[in-house]
Design brief:
Elements (H helix, E strand, L loop, with lengths): L2 H8 L2 E5 L1 H9 L5 E6 L8 H14 L4 E6 L21 H15 L8 E5 L1 H4 L4 H8 L4 H5 L2 H8 L6 H17 L3 E5 L3 H13 L6 E5 L25 H9 L6 H8 L4 H12 L5 H16 L2 H16 L6 E4 L11 H7 L6 H9 L3 E3 L2 E2 L14 E4 L3 E6 L1
Parallel strand pairs: 2-3, 2-5, 3-4, 5-6, 7-11
Antiparallel strand pairs: 1-6, 8-9, 8-10, 10-11
C-alpha cells in the first residue's frame, strides 16, 4: 500500500466499513462515486467539517467523483443526529439561502470541476404516499431504536416523532438514487450510513462503503467543535482570526489537528510527540507550523506570513496595532448600524456573530466596551474598534 492511500485511510479516520473493500477499490483504480450529504440547517463550514471534506478532495485528486447531496427536502423535516432535541423545520427560502452560502465555502476545499451537485427535491418532489410506504416497509421499529440517541430518548420517555424515523430512510434512499459507492460522515452518522448500505442491498445494488471521519474537539480542547459553543474556527474567517485561534488551542490538540486538517509530514508529527513527551520548550514552533499551514490552505502564503507577524506583535510582544480600514459613507444610510458596516468588508462573518461578540463584551470603541450595536452616524473618523481578541481596526471615512 502506497503512502498516499495509507494517509487517506488513517489520518483523521475513525472507521471504514468494510475497510478491505474500500482499499481494494482504490488499489484497482475503480472510479468511485463519493457521497457527502449536507443538511442546510446552518450556512457555515468550520474546521470540524473540513476533516471529511479534505478526504473527498484527496480522493478527487486520485480521479474519483464527489456527489454532494443538498438535503433541501429532509431539512424541512428535522433530524436529531445525535442531539437530544429535534432540529427545527426550515422554510424553503431558509434552505436555499443556507445552501448557497455553504456551497461557496464547500468549494474552498473540494474541487468543483469534479463534483456533482444533486438536490433531494429532484426525486422527493415527485414522491407519493405509496413510495413512502414502500420504503418504510423495508425496516423495523426495533432497528431504529438501536440507534443510540433514539434509544436514550425512548428509555427516558422523551418523545420521538415518526418523521425522525423517516430521516435515516430518506437519507439511505439518496444513496440508491445516486448509486453511491462510498458515503462519508462523522461517527455520529454511522447508523444512517449503515441504513443506506442496507437499503442498497434490498434494492439489488452493490452496498456502499461507509467512511467515518473523526469528530474533532474545538479550540477549548474539550467539546466537539461547534459554532453554538463558540469553540470553532470558520474556513471563511480572516487570516488573523484563524491564526490567532489556532495559537490559542491546548498543546494536546496539536497532533490531532495536524493529522486531521493538514498534510504535514508524519515524521514532523512524530517529532512533536517526542517533544511533548520530553516536555521540550519548542512546542510553540509546532503550533506556529500548524497555524501557518491552515491559514495558507484557506487564504494564501502571504496572508499566513502577515498573520504570523501580527500575532507576534500584538500577542507575543503585546504591541496592539490598529489596521487602517477605509469605509465609504455613501454606501450606507445614516440609520444603519456598525455591525452591518463591519460585515460589508468581512470584518465579521455575519450580523449574528457581531451580536454574539457584543453580548460577550468583545467589542470596544476607543477602548470602551460596547453593550449594543450603534448607529454609523455616531462614529468619527479615526475611531478605533477592537472586535474579539485579534481584530483591531482604525476607521477611515
Amino acid at each position: 500500500m502506497n503512502e498516499t492511500i495509507n494517509n487517506i485511510i488513517s489520518r483523521g479516520v475513525e472507521e471504514i466499513i468494510p475497510e478491505h473493500e474500500f482499499i481494494d477499490s482504490i488499489q484497482k483504480n475503480n472510479k468511485l462515486r463519493l457521497k457527502m450529504g449536507f443538511d442546510p440547517s446552518a450556512p457555515d463550514i468550520h474546521l470540524g467539517h473540513a476533516v471529511g471534506l479534505r478526504k473527498l478532495r484527496q480522493l478527487q485528486d486520485l480521479g474519483h467523483t464527489v456527489v454532494l447531496i443538498v438535503a433541501d427536502w429532509t431539512a424541512q423535516i428535522g433530524d436529531p443526529s445525535g442531539r437530544s432535541d429535534t432540529r427545527p423545520m426550515l422554510t424553503y427560502e431558509q434552505v436555499r439561502y443556507n445552501a448557497e452560502s455553504y456551497l461557496k465555502q464547500f468549494f474552498k476545499i473540494v474541487d468543483k470541476s469534479k463534483t456533482e451537485i444533486r438536490w433531494q427535491s429532484e426525486w422527493y418532489g415527485k414522491f407519493k404516499l405509496e413510495n413512502i410506504i414502500n420504503l418504510t416497509s423495508k425496516f423495523t421499529i426495533a432497528q431504529f431504536l438501536s440507534r443510540d440517541d433514539f434509544a436514550k430518548r425512548f428509555k427516558s420517555n422523551h418523545p420521538i416523532t415518526l418523521t425522525e424515523f423517516l430521516y435515516p430512510i430518506l437519507q439511505a434512499y439518496d444513496s440508491v438514487v445516486i448509486k453511491s459507492d462510498v458515503e462519508f460522515g462523522g461517527t455520529d452518522q454511522k447508523f444512517n450510513l449503515l441504513v443506506g448500505r442496507d437499503l442498497q442491498q434490498k434494492e439489488n445494488q452493490k452496498p456502499q462503503q461507509c467512511f467515518l471521519v473523526q469528530i474533532i474537539p474545538g479550540t477549548d480542547g474539550k467539546r466537539k467543535m461547534s459554532k453554538s459553543l463558540n469553540n470553532y474556527i470558520g474556513v471563511t474567517e480572516s487570516p488573523f482570526e484563524i491564526y490567532g485561534k489556532l495559537m490559542s488551542i491546548p498543546d494536546e490538540l496539536i497532533k490531532l489537528y495536524m493529522l486531521c486538517l493538514t498534510d504535514i509530514d508524519n515524521k514532523i508529527i512524530s517529532e512533536f510527540e517526542l517533544s511533548m513527551k520530553n516536555q521540550n520548550n519548542n512546542l510553540m514552533d509546532y503550533k506556529k507550523l500548524l497555524a501557518n499551514d491552515i491559514v495558507t490552505q484557506y487564504h494564501s502564503v502571504e496572508d499566513a506570513t502577515q498573520a504570523a507577524l501580527f500575532f507576534k506583535e500584538s500577542v507575543q510582544d503585546k504591541n496592539i496595532t490598529f489596521d487602517k480600514t477605509d469605509f465609504n459613507l455613501n454606501n450606507f444610510k445614516s440609520d444603519e448600524k456598525l455591525g452591518k458596516m463591519l460585515f460589508s468588508q468581512n470584518i465579521v462573518s455575519s450580523n449574528s456573530e457581531f451580536k454574539r461578540l457584543l453580548k460577550q463584551n468583545g467589542v470596544k470603541l476607543n477602548g470602551k466596551i460596547l453593550s449594543e450595536d450603534i448607529l454609523i452616524s455616531k462614529l468619527n473618523n479615526n475611531d478605533r474598534i477592537s472586535i474579539g481578541k485579534r481584530k483591531n481596526i482604525q476607521i477611515i471615512f
